[in-house]
Design brief:
The chain has 156 residues and is α/β, with parallel strands linked by helices. It is built from 6 helices and 6 strands.
């Protein structure tokens, strides 16, 4: 599973999200993802909130990977957001978050869901890439950075 499989294109990338906090961010992400994935916005938001109640998806280093499962989706899909200003997210290192990768997987996608989470986590552990993501302004350029490692590996 590659990042290009999760992000449908630049429309799945938000370049400068302004938000007041974690709950508002999850509502914004649910709204945006519901639009291009044809999902019920409220149900997606509820799933994200339920997952956060189990423990924060803030993985440290200013990064969060909120995720949830939805019966109405056939394959795992994602939405990437770079926040205009970092927000408190109850991350494991207590640092505010400014890089967010929302992941939505089918209800019964146990292994695929875990593979997608692992792939996103691996990608966002690359400090050099994360620095570039923080310095990039446009959704198109962010998308290119996110899928570039895959394209570079494919060309090799």
């Amino acid at each position: 599973m590659e990042i290009a499989d999760l992000l449908t294109g630049p429309e799945a990338v938000l370049a400068s999200v302004k938000t007041s906090g974690k709950k508002a961010l999850l509502a914004e992400l649910a709204s945006r993802a519901a639009g291009f994935l044809a999902l019920d916005e409220r149900r997606l938001f509820d799933r994200l909130i339920e997952r956060e109640a189990l423990g924060s998806t803030g993985i440290g280093g200013g990064i969060a990977i909120p995720h949830g499962r939805m019966a109405a989706i056939a394959t795992p899909r994602g939405l990437f957001a770079r926040l205009a200003q970092p927000i408190a997210f109850d991350a494991i290192d207590d640092r505010p978050v400014d890089i967010v990768f929302l992941l939505v997987a089918p209800e019964g996608a146990g292994a695929d869901h875990l593979k997608a989470l692992a792939r996103v986590s691996r990608l966002l552990r690359d400090r050099s890439l994360v620095d570039k993501l923080r310095a990039t302004e446009s959704a198109e350029a962010l998308y290119a950075l996110l899928v570039e490692p895959i394209q570079a590996q494919s060309a090799a």
